[in-house]
C-alpha cells in the first residue's frame, strides 16, 4: 500500500506540470444484467516526465514499470469476490497504461467490486452507496464518490495552500475521466448533458473534466441515467 501511496503522490505532482492524463471506465452491459467492466489509467502523456524522474533517481528504485503496482493492487482487491470472474491485469509499461478488467454476473456484483476495488477511506466516506443501478430498461451511473469534494481533498492533501491549488487547477483543466457504456440494444435518452450517444445508438460516452467547471468539475457530475429500448 505504501508503494501505491508514493505513486499517487507522484501523479498528483506530475499532473501539475502536464495535463495529459485520462482515467477511463468502460462497461459492456448485457440485457441479462451481466457484463464486463474495464478501468484504465492512461498516463502516456507523462512518459517524458517519468523518464526524467528515472534519470534523476540515484537509488534505482523508481522504474517505468513501478506503476504496475496499481494494476496488481486493483486486481487483488476484486479477486475472489462473489460474481466477479475472468480478472485481467492491464499493464502496458511501454505506453504507461494500467488498470484492471473483469466480468460481472450482475450489477450487485459490479457494485461490490467497485466498493472493494476503488474506495479509499482517507478520501471517501461514501463507500456504502451504489456506483451503478439498473432495471429492465435503464442503466444508471451514480456519483457515489462525490467527485467534486473528493478532488478538493486530493489536491489539498497533495499541495496544501490555496494559491497552489488554484494554480494546479489551471494546469489540470484537461485531466479527464471518460466513461464509455456499451449496450446490446438501443439507447432512448441520457440524463447528463455532457454525454453523447453513438450513431448506432448503442454506446454512450461521457467525458468529465475533473478540474474544469465548464466541462465538469464542481459544477458537473458523472451521474447519468441511460434509458434503453
Describe the model:
The protein has helices at residues 2-17, 47-56, 68-78, 107-118, 147-159, 162-171, and strands at 22-29, 35-42, 84-92, 97-104, 132-135, 138-141, 176-183, 187-190, 195-197, 203-209, 224-228. The protein is an alpha+beta fold. It is globular, with a radius of gyration of 18 Å.
Keywords:
229 residues; 11 strands; disordered N terminus; 31% helix; seven-stranded mixed beta sheet; four-stranded antiparallel beta sheet
Short note summarizing the structure:
The chain is of the alpha+beta class. Helices cover 31% and strands 30% of the residues.
Mean pLDDT: 77
- Put simply, the count of helices is 6
Strand order of the largest sheet: 3-4-2-1-7-10-9
Shape: globular
Distance between the termini: 44 Å
Uncertain runs with pLDDT below 50, 5 residues or more?
Answer: 1-8, 121-127
- H/E element sequence: HEEHHEEHEEHHEEEEE
Give me the secondary-structure category: alpha+beta
> Could you tell me the radius of gyration in angstroms?
18 Å
What's the main sheet like? 7 strands, mixed
Could you give the count of β-strands? 11
Q: Helical content, roughly? A: 25-40%
Strand content range: 25-35%
SSE arrangement:
Layout: H1 2-17, E1 22-29, E2 35-42, H2 47-56, H3 68-78, E3 84-92, E4 97-104, H4 107-118, E5 132-135, E6 138-141, H5 147-159, H6 162-171, E7 176-183, E8 187-190, E9 195-197, E10 203-209, E11 224-228
Parallel strand pairs: 1-7
Antiparallel strand pairs: 1-2, 2-4, 3-4, 5-6, 6-11, 7-10, 8-11, 9-10
Helix pairs in contact: 3-4
